[in-house]
Write a structure and sequence with these properties.
The protein has helices at about 15-30, 45-50, 50-60, 75, 80-85, 105-110, 140-150, 165-180, 210-230, 245-255, 275-285, 305-315, 350-355, and strands spanning about 5-10, 35-40, 65-70, 95-100, 115-120, 130-135, 155, 185-190, 230-235, 240, 260-265, 265-270, 270-275, 290-295, 300, 320-325, 330-335. By secondary structure, it is an alpha/beta fold. The chain has a domain at about 5-85: Rossmann fold.
Length: about 350
């Protein structure tokens, strides 16, 4: 006898009838299923599973006997994904994106949505994605509640906010993942090297920061690694652009208002864009890679040259650049990739970034 297990999460009886029927009708099209079993979890799982009216309504719609059972994992706080896999049910891993309303977070939600069960948090600027939770960084209980409800297999952090409160929140997330099993993908920054700007830096270079921000990020990296070990994946990011990024919006606004565009002639950077970055992170997750990653272009350009070429490629003429210099002959703030386990398609250069952004006008 062939048996089909349908996995679904529900929160109320009325929604359950319609949604379960939809899944069951689709399953009925596969004529080889002799038996259809629906496994549910969520706040009302037990109530719905034991309600004979629900079962009769759904069975009546598909003209076939079904069984509905509540997942024990809901009450016992076991890892639902592991239990379902043991029962022969294909389950998408659950991803929680901290800071899902920001540039990088939003790109990640859109990129990962087809392969993972993706949830996100926001502070004040939510968007139309339905699986968003409002997270108050001042309220640790809200973070714990979100973790308990989502039960993520992995968390990607690209959030912003008060440094000390971020530390406390990330420690809570790390301890949850350590206890329940899971990975943390932590977005760090090139500023972990801003104490040594004499050269660009690679993944195995010793961190050295001068700025408060850089020191904060180093502290996060080290504290999280103490808890999670190899289950912490550090993603160091350079300048991140995007067609709707604050950097791009400001550049276009300054040009439109005929303001001077401020640049440094001796600041050497590498760059990335949100859509390419999200694909890189997807690849890292999908291929179970670990360690430290520098996710940017393999070359550096001065800020002056990058902006000048971008402005020209956008088709603007006569744009004034206000050129300044930083102390020293060359000032590097670049995290160059040296790993070769990412695939050739992810070897990117500044020209690729300019190509991508040149369609923004």
């Amino acid at each position: 006898m062939e048996r089909l297990n349908i996995l679904w999460t529900t929160s109320d009886k009325d929604t359950a009838v319609n949604m379960l029927a939809m899944y069951a009708v689709n399953a009925k099209k596969k004529e080889w299923w002799d038996e259809i079993n629906i496994i549910i979890w969520g706040g009302s799982a037990k109530l719905v599973a034991e309600d004979t009216e629900v079962r009769e309504l759904v069975a009546g719609m598909i003209k076939r006997e079904i069984s509905i059972e509540a997942c024990k994992a809901c009450a016992d706080r076991y890892n639902v994904s592991d239990i379902m896999k043991e029962m022969g049910v294909d389950v998408m891993n659950r991803v929680l994106v901290l800071g899902a309303s920001g540039l990088v977070g939003k790109a990640l939600v859109e990129e990962l949505g087809s392969n993972y069960d993706v949830y996100g948090t926001y502070h004040s600027n939510g968007w139309s994605y339905e699986r968003l939770f409002r997270l108050d960084i001042n309220d640790m209980e809200s973070m714990k509640s979100i973790l308990d409800e989502v039960e993520p297999d992995m968390v990607i952090s690209c959030m912003r906010g008060d440094f000390e409160k971020q530390i406390n929140l990330h420690m809570a997330v790390a301890k949850y993942l350590k206890k329940n099993g899971g990975r943390l993908y932590y977005c760090s920054t090139a500023n972990v090297f801003d104490g040594d700007v004499s050269k660009p830096h690679h993944e195995d270079d010793e961190t050295e920061a001068e700025s408060v921000y850089g020191k904060f990020k180093i502290r996060c990296e080290k504290e999280l690694e103490k808890i999670l070990g190899n289950d912490l994946i550090i993603l160091r990011l350079p300048m991140i652009w995007g067609k709707e990024s604050p950097r791009m919006s400001k550049l276009l606004k300054d040009i439109g208002e005929k303001n001077e565009v401020e640049v440094y002639s001796n600041l050497y950077l590498n760059n990335n864009v949100d859509v390419i970055l999200s694909r890189q992170i997807h690849y890292i997750i999908e291929n179970d890679l670990d360690g430290i990653f520098h996710l940017g272009t393999e070359d550096v350009m001065t800020q002056h040259d990058f902006i000048r070429e971008l402005v020209d490629r956008l088709g603007f003429r006569g744009v004034e650049l206000k050129v300044s210099t930083l102390p020293g002959e060359k000032h590097f703030l670049a995290v160059l990739p040296s790993r070769r386990d990412m695939g050739e398609e992810f070897r990117i250069f500044n020209e690729d970034i300019i190509d991508c952004l040149s369609e923004c006008r």
